[in-house]
Amino acid sequence: MLSCRVRSGEFVSGDEAVRARMMRQPRQAVDLIPSQCWELLRQTSLGRVVFTRHAMPAIRLVNHLVDARTIVIRSHLGSAITGHASGDGAVVCYETDDIEPVRHSGWSVVATGTARLVTDPDAVSRYQQALDPWVPQPMDQVIAITPAMITGIRLAGWCQ
Fold first, then answer.
1. What's the whole-model pTM score?
2. DSSP labels for 65-117?
């Protein structure tokens, strides 16, 4: 059985031919079940929200928290993200990942659903205390994303 290790970001092998052979092996993308996707979302705090702005796709890097089956973000772009949607909310995607570029492995989760501004004062206060924005600008709006669909893949690289 061939094996390899990564130490401090470097490939360790006594035989470059083995390394070259392993790199040519196809990588696998393994589908994740929804419960695995939710667990990965809970383990990370940074992702990208994808929404429509001025009839064009827009993407913003944001931090998040997961509350039950809801993804919560804070933003100054609340109305831009939620748009002029009806009470059903605006359709958005939320993506987060953890990719290891040296090993060509990791995972990615995409949640597609509706985004709504959180308006209940108690909920807004609770989320504002629990979710500290990463950038030093006012993030005065809290947005709740309720996914209708959540999918994910785990990338199995050549050096596990």
1. 0.79
2. EEETTEEEEEES-HHHHHTT--TT-EEEEEEEEEEETTTTEEEEEEEEEEEEE
Look up residue 12 and give its amino acid: V
- What are the tens digits of pLDDT across the range 33-68? 999 999 999 999 999 999 998 889 999 999 999 999
Q: What DSSP designation does 136 have? A: S
Domain residue spans in the chain?
33-156
CATH superfamily label, 33-156? Electron Transport, Fmn-binding Protein; Chain A (2.30.110.10)
Amino acid at 34: P
Q: What is the pLDDT of residues 76-117, one digit of tens each?
A: 877 788 876 666 789 999 999 999 887 778 999 999 999 999
Question: 104: Cβ–Cβ under 8 A, 6 or more apart, which residues?
Answer: 27, 155, 157, 158, 159
CB 51 within 8 A of CB 64: no
- The two tokens of residue 137 are 């600008």
